[in-house]
Amino acid sequence: MLELRDVHKTYETDKGKRHVLKGVTATFQKGDAVGILGRNGAGKSTLMRIIGGVDHPTSGTIRRRMSVSWPLGFGGAVHPLLTGADNCRFIARIYDRPLDWVTGFVQEFAELGDYFHLPVKTYSSGMETRLAFALSLAVDFDCYLVDEVVAVGDHRFAQRCREALLERRGRSTLLLVSHQPDIVRSLCTSAATLDQGRLTFHEDLDQAVAAYHAL
Amino acid sequence: MPQILEEPSLRRAFRIQRIVIGALLLRELQTRFGRKNLGAVWLFLEPMILGGCVGAFHLVLGHGLPGGINVFAFYVVGYTPYYLFRGMLNRAASALEANHALLYHSRVTLLDVVIARNLLEGAAVLLAMTVFLIAIGVLMGDWPQDPILIAAGVAWMVAMCHGASMLILAGTRWGVMTMDRLVHPFTYLTIPVTGAFFMVDWFPSHVQPLLTIFPTVHVFEMVRAGQFGPSLNYHYDLVYMAAVTVALNVLGMLALRAARKHLEI
To answer: Is 60 exceeded by the pLDDT of residue B237?
Structure first.
C-alpha cells in the first residue's frame, strides 16, 4: 500500500512561491494500475518525484508499504559520467541485486550495443530512457512510477515496455502519468485527473477521460 | 533475491546505508581518480612541489626551522592535512550537483553522498601521506616517531571537516554559487591561521591561546607530534578538538536534514 495524505509542495522561484501540489490525498493498493491524466504543468512530474522520494513534500505525509521505483522517464537515475555498465553495477549494488544478472538483463533488454560501455552523456535521450527502464525492471520493484514517454517514443522499445508493464499487472502497482487518454486506456484499469494541484479519482476510465477533456 | 522492502528496523537501515556508501565510494573513485582524470596525480604532486620548493628554499638560505627539524618533512606533514581541509570544504557545495542523478534513488541520501566523498578524500590523503613519509624515512632517515598518532590526526581532520562540509552543503539551499563565494575565500584567507605552516611553540606564551582558537591548529600539532616525537613541545587539547568535532557534526546533520526539502534535485 502507498498512501499520500494532504501532500503540499511549494517551490521557491525568482518570481515568488509556486504552489504546485495543494493537498493531494490518495491510496494505491498492490496490483492497481492507475493512470494520472493532467495537462502540461499540472504538477504530474512533481507528484511522481514526491511519490518516488526524490523531492520531499513541503507538508503532508507519505507512507510506503511497498518498494517504489524512482520516477521513470523524467531523466535522472543514471550518472552521466559513468558508462551504462558502471551504472548497472551501481544500481545492482544499492538495491542488493546480483551484479552479473542485472548487467546481463539490462544489456539484453535495453539493446544499447557498444554504447553500453560508453558514458551515459554520449547517449540519446531515448537510449538513456531505455537504460533506466531496463534497470528498474531488473531491480523488480513493487510499484512503478512511469511517465508516458517510456511507453511511446521508439516503436519497438515502446512495445516491449508496454508488454513488460502489462506482464507485471496484478503483481505490481503501476502509476502512469500522461496527457494521452489512449495510453492510459491501454495500460491502466483506473484513472485520476490532476488539475490545479489537486488529484481527483473517478469511477471508471470513461469518466476520467471525460473529466480530463472537460478541463 | 532479497526483498527490497523488508521489515523496517534499525539494523536494516544501517545495512542499507553501508551498502549505499560502499557503492557511492566506488562511483566517486571512478570519476575523481578515474583514468582520464588527473585527481590522483595532483594528490601526490601538490604536496611534493610545495614541500620540495620550500625545503630547497630553506636549504639555499642556509637556515632551518626552530628545533632543527626536517624542513621537507615539516611542510609535507603540514600540507597534506591542509589539502584535506581545503578539499573537503571546497568540494562540499558541489556534492549534490555531482551526484544529482543518483539522488533519484530514494535509498541514496545526501548524508550518504557526503560520507562517501569525505571517506574517499581521507583515505586518498592518508595514502599520499604514507608514501611521502616512507620516502622521507628512506631518503633522509627521518622516520615518523608515532605513525598511529599521525593517522589519528588525519582521521580527526576528516571528522572535523565532515561536520563543516555538511553545514556548507545545507547552506546551498541559498545557492551553490553563494556558498562557493563564501567557502573558497574562507579556505584561502585562513591559510595562515589553520596551523598548517607554523608551530604554536614558536610564539610567545601570551599569544598561544589566541592561536589555538582555530580548531585545526590542534590537529596539525597532533600530526606533527606523531612525526617529530617528544623532543619538541606541542599544543593540542583533545577535549577542545572533540567538542568542536561533535558540535560541527551534530549541527551539520541537523542543518542538512532541515535543508533537504529546500534542495531541488
So the answer is: yes
Domain-embedded: residue B1: no
| Cross-chain residue pair A91–B31, CB shorter than 8 Å | no
Does any CB of chain A come closer than 8 Å to the CB of residue B260?
A: yes
Judge whether B222 lies within some domain. yes
Q: Compute the distance between CA of residue B217 and CA of residue B200 in angstroms, rounded to an integer.
A: 8
Grid cell listed for A68: 517504489
Burial of B26 (0-12, 13-18, 19+ CB in 10 A): middle
> Which chain B residues contact residue A91 at CB under 8 A?
105
Kindly list the distances between the CA atom of residue B207 and the CA atoms of B99, B219, B222, in Å, as whole numbers in the listed order.
Answer: 44, 18, 19
- Tell me which residue in B4, B101, B265 faces A80 most closely, judged by beta carbons: B101
Confidence (pLDDT) at A171: 85
> Which residues have CB under 8 Å from A110's CB, separation 6+?
A84, A116, A127, A130, A131, A133, A134
Residue in B19, B99, B265 closest to A54 by CB: B265
A-proximal residues of B, 74-113, CB under 8 Å: 99-108
Residue A9 in contact with residue A46, Cβ under 8 Å? yes
What is the ipTM for the molecules in this complex? 0.87
In a domain, B187, yes or no: yes
